[in-house]
Amino acid sequence: MFFIFGISNGHKELEHHQSMVCHVCGRYGRYQVFMEYMFFSLFFIPVFKWNKTYYVQTSCCGTLYTIDNELGKRIARGEGVTLQKEDLILVKSGRYDSMKKCNRCGYTTSEDFQYCPKCAQPLN
């Protein structure tokens, strides 16, 4: 007889719908809450989880925050939680700082282009 077991990382998106104005880029977006964890599996079935960490990412610029585990557990249970600025601990600032926008057509890109790929206007 043999056992198939393993330890792996997991990622789970949590149901949380909250619109906001981003503190980093100033644009309108929403919070996307997810949980990362380690788990032990036996015959490819997760048996138990540990080392749970709850994250919040903004949809506008991708800024990443962590939140308290108790608050994350409440969101995972489906409670109506409203995230406040003081609940968020900054992990990584978003990609908004490196975005370029064409003055002529309004095309936005994060690539290092000298000219707009849509209208060939020089980018600043």
In short:
The chain is mainly beta and 124 residues long. It is 6% helix and 42% strand.
Description:
Strand 2 and strand 3 (28-42) form a beta hairpin. The chain has 124 residues and is mostly beta strands. The chain has one helix at 69-76; strands at residues 5-13, 19-21, 28-42, 45-58, 64-66, 89-92, 100-101, 108-109.
What is the N-to-C succession of helices and strands? Answer: EEEEEHEEE
Q: What count of structural domains?
A: 2
Q: Shape from CA axes?
A: elongated
Rg over CA atoms: 20 Å
How many distinct beta strands? 8
End-to-end span in angstroms? 67 Å
* Structural class computed from helices and strand pairing: mainly beta
Relative helix content: under 10%
Summarize the biggest pleated sheet.
6 strands, antiparallel
- Tell me the number of helical segments per DSSP (H or I, 4 or more residues long): 1
Beta-strand fraction estimate? 35-45%
Uncertain segments are none
Mean pLDDT: 89
